[in-house]
Amino acid sequence: MSPLAALGLFLVAATPALAHHVGAYVPKDNAITANFKQIKFSVQAGKFDVAHRLFETGALRTDMSARAASLPPRLEAGLRDALQSRDGGEVERRLMVFFAALARDLALEAERRLADLTLSRDARTAIGQRFLEAIWRYYNLVDFAVAQRDDKTSVAVRLAFDEAEGYVKSSPIPNPDKLREPLRRIAQVLSALIDSSLPARRSS
Question: How many CA atoms lie within 13 A of 121 on its CB side?
């Protein structure tokens, strides 16, 4: 089973529904997001040796390696190089790309799951809620970095999240069918961000 499929099954089984406006929601950390924050704070403090150790031994690198086939070429190697050369801006850029890719892949998986009309409306609504929380958990970490580089992308993602969340609110009637379109836009916008952040012509 792929890491994304496994995460999707976990979400359906275990993740609580969104409690309020997703744009203002700060999800609880998991091992990957906690490791990201450790690396980020170490880099900001100029402790690149600590950040490098945290990356090599942490959940973020493990997940990045597991997802290598769906990530830009040499994303992990380039991040390691940036840590070793003490290039904070490049570390931030590559972390941004990684979490944007996580959010994009979850949006694509959510859209695929919501297309299954053998599931009830309530089941698809619950799936939509749980995937939205997971997508936001990852994207929220790098939205500031995205906005610094491309404010239009940040706004587009946030607007799509707002629209998506509106379709799964309990009042008056949830509409999981309409949720697929904003999820598709999130995936498209994030794909464009990833492509423009790490062009194919780059050697790393």
Answer: 9
